[in-house]
Write a structure and sequence with these properties.
Three copies of one chain form a homotrimer. Chain A is mainly α. Chain A has one domain. Chain A has eight helices and no strands. In chain A, helix 2 packs antiparallel against helix 4, helix 2 packs antiparallel against helix 6 and helix 5 packs across helix 7. The N and C termini of chain A lie far apart (about 45 Å). Chains in contact: A-B, A-C, B-C. At the A-B interface, helix 2, helix 6 and helix 7 of A face helix 1, helix 2 and helix 3 of B. Chains A, B, C: Belongs to the UPF0126 family. Chains A, B, C: It is found in: Cell membrane. Chains A, B, C: Its main location: membrane.
């Protein structure tokens, strides 16, 4: 179950990268690169900062193939993707929840402080998109838009709260990912957003 | 004494990141991220390239708290910060001197060549600001403005000159940080700048 | 022979970085930084992701000196560089072939899958330029222009095909670098380019 969701998340991030690159009129290599960076950039940053090298996608080829296939399919069906927009948004949200969880787990495995683990989870889930926006020469959209990273941070606190209460691991995973996904869905539906600060 | 100055430097960099992010009208999460990246980005880059992982801020939580508190205070008092501009500039300059020193020391500890250590010192002190500017979609200001990184490079040479003369460690630290701070202050007061090259 | 070509490649990348920075009217430190990042950024990214730290240029000072000298010479002779444009293009192409080879070899040495090695080779050769463009606040030119990274990817497949056929190492090196250089030259001469995808 975990791995199916992991795949869906990777697919969603790859698709979002592909669409961003097409909009910038990049060539085929540019599209592939942006797609890869969006899908695996957050995890790569996390692994490099912890010292888990070679980074995950170098050790497990499935990420490579998933991104490749997703990108090709996204290019072929790009005109129908607006119809699929809701499913892409759902995948992306699932990816957000799941990638946060992976980051949290890696932090715990490296014996880091809960606050650092929460940062790692958020970086895993959000910085692929940040790198995508930097490569496309834009200010990262998650610094400006609706609740996104905040959902990951909140999920991280839930994770450690339940861990502290000594709950069952499956329940912790489900609640963490579930709360991230719920907050993100509610934020989009209810148009929540973080305040901007004016000078 | 070292750690107090280290704190002041981190505070100064966090404040400068916060102000840059507010000017770009980012939301609260964007401000926090830019603030963190400015304060710990240079050291993170340094640690990752040497292989000191998990990187420093993951092992010593004080950076996390210092940045968090500085950011919150900078947001609250943002309207009075222009009055504080001189003190922020002073903190930033102290941070510059000190972060260079930390980078130099790490390079020496990793048994690297003096020239590489000087590069590491400069990266530690300056690349947080470079990353801040990239995230804000600007050409890094230190590539264009007055003497900044040059002060770090100069300080690095002082450091190894005095080390070569076998002077006392405290004296070396003081002279290195002192020369960087002095050069930077003089550069701003006297409006020194590096030449730009025209085609 | 290998090291002479390696030097030529580094020189070419440093020169291309210097020219890009001059065009952006950066100051001397900005020019030096962009020059360094262009020449050693791809290899640094590769080493950091594999976990080969301290990264190569920290262990072998020759890169440092080559970049420094190239940058100074490029600044001095910047007005005559248009006359030298063909030789710079040739160096850059040689660098492309060679840096890909270095990346492939490092991947093989780290016991990674061929597809990952090909990615590493491409990253080594192309991401210095990507970092240069990000620092100059541009969308990376290799995502938009003629065949560049594609030549590296193609060369990577040649590399593993010949390795699979158990050919002599020197022959493999020559054929790999040769095919990358040939494809790149042909692409520029014949104005080949990858398709862009329109929405």
């Amino acid at each position: 179950m975990f791995s199916i969701l992991d795949i869906l998340g990777t697919v969603a991030f790859a698709v979002s990268g592909t669409l961003a690159a097409i909009q910038k009129r990049l060539d085929l290599f540019g599209i592939l690169t942006i797609s890869f960076v969006t899908a695996i950039g957050g995890g790569t940053l996390r692994d490099v900062m912890i010292g888990n090298t070679p980074v995950l996608w170098m050790q497990d080829l499935s990420y490579f193939y998933i991104v490749l296939v997703s990108t090709v399919l996204a290019i072929i069906f790009r005109k129908r993707l607006s119809i699929l927009r809701t499913s892409i948004f759902l995948f992306d949200t699932i990816g957000l929840g799941l990638f946060t969880l992976v980051g949290l787990e890696k932090g715990v495995a490296a014996d880091l402080d809960p606050l650092i683990c929460i940062s790692l989870g958020t970086i895993s889930a959000c910085f692929g998109g940040v790198l995508r926006d930097i490569l496309c020469n834009e200010i990262p959209v998650i610094f400006q838009k609706e609740i996104y990273a905040t959902a990951c941070i909140f999920g991280g606190f839930i994770f450690f709260l339940l861990k502290y209460l000594n709950l069952n691991d499956d329940l912790i995973f489900l609640s963490t990912a579930g709360s991230i996904i719920t907050i993100r869905l509610l934020a989009v539906i209810k148009k929540w957003s973080l305040p901007t600060i004016t000078l």
